[in-house]
Amino acid sequence: GFIGVEVAEQLAHLNKEIHIVEAMDDIMAGPFDQAYSKEIQKALEEIDVKVHTSEMAQEFITEENHVIAVQTSNQKIEADAVIVSVGFRPNTSIFKDKLEMLGNGAIITNEYGQTSIKDVFSAGDCASIKHRFSGDQYIPLATYANKMGRIIGTNIATDNQDDWIKFNGALGSSLIKVGNYEAGSTGLTEKNAKDLGLNIKTTTIFANNHSNYYPNQEKIMIKLVYDAKNFVLYGAQVFGKAEAALRLHALTTAIYAGLTTKEIGFIDYAYAPPFASTWEAINIAANTAK
């Protein structure tokens, strides 16, 4: 996940020998489709992080109360230190049978931050969030904790409920930096969309980050997930060395607005040689959606 990859990336800069042990077939498999997970793995390997997928940590081998190795399903890896980054669960057991919860214990809230009890509100890593496409989900991100905290604070202090503000729905928008590369995901992945039974198509392109006569031109990989009939955008992923990550903001906005790939293909994005090509990479991706 994010924490494991980010910590590994930072430690690699200190010239440490780093191993990531991942039980699943791909790292970062939640927010990214497989092709993007593979690119993130390559980015880690470029900075000498060793990634072991489809391999499960089974035992910490200790000596005088210190971990000296990790026994996995495939090998023994010697270690000076072990960082456990395997996700987490909401610590909400004190509210069991009092508040409605998801299966993992996350307190279910509505778009105003209310729980199943009228005057009880919840936000942050203990609470669910409303996803625009898939309903109540547990997505423990700082962005939602901050937004829901503000919404709840405002609503508690507002007498007239008609004046309450509400959250417009999550998209799971996430960014990560690995070595010289940037990656981001927003909305539904291809797998998410298929699990929801949506009739979708996808397109993946490689486009330039800016004009070729300006220094340091790099390729950006963009994937769009969209409705097969009406071309409404459901999700997007980006990957690249330079100027890739912040392009996700435009794609997130497009999903919120319910734009189609046909509309996105001709949006009037700004152009100057240091920042983009005359055909912005997002335009190019959208125009390949057939």
TrEMBL record:
<dbReference type="InterPro" id="IPR016156">
    <property type="entry name" value="FAD/NAD-linked_Rdtase_dimer_sf"/>
</dbReference>
<dbReference type="InterPro" id="IPR004099">
    <property type="entry name" value="Pyr_nucl-diS_OxRdtase_dimer"/>
</dbReference>
<dbReference type="InterPro" id="IPR023753">
    <property type="entry name" value="FAD/NAD-binding_dom"/>
</dbReference>
<protein>
    <submittedName>
        <fullName>FAD-dependent oxidoreductase</fullName>
    </submittedName>
</protein>
<comment type="similarity">
    <text>Belongs to the class-III pyridine nucleotide-disulfide oxidoreductase family.</text>
</comment>
<dbReference type="GO" id="GO:0016491">
    <property type="term" value="F:oxidoreductase activity"/>
</dbReference>
<dbReference type="InterPro" id="IPR036188">
    <property type="entry name" value="FAD/NAD-bd_sf"/>
</dbReference>
<feature type="domain" description="FAD/NAD(P)-binding">
    <location>
        <begin position="1"/>
        <end position="149"/>
    </location>
</feature>
<keyword id="KW-0285">Flavoprotein</keyword>
<dbReference type="InterPro" id="IPR050260">
    <property type="entry name" value="FAD-bd_OxRdtase"/>
</dbReference>
<feature type="domain" description="Pyridine nucleotide-disulphide oxidoreductase dimerisation">
    <location>
        <begin position="177"/>
        <end position="278"/>
    </location>
</feature>
<keyword id="KW-0676">Redox-active center</keyword>
<keyword id="KW-0560">Oxidoreductase</keyword>
<dbReference type="Pfam" id="PF07992">
    <property type="entry name" value="Pyr_redox_2"/>
</dbReference>
<keyword id="KW-0558">Oxidation</keyword>
<keyword id="KW-0274">FAD</keyword>
<dbReference type="Pfam" id="PF02852">
    <property type="entry name" value="Pyr_redox_dim"/>
</dbReference>
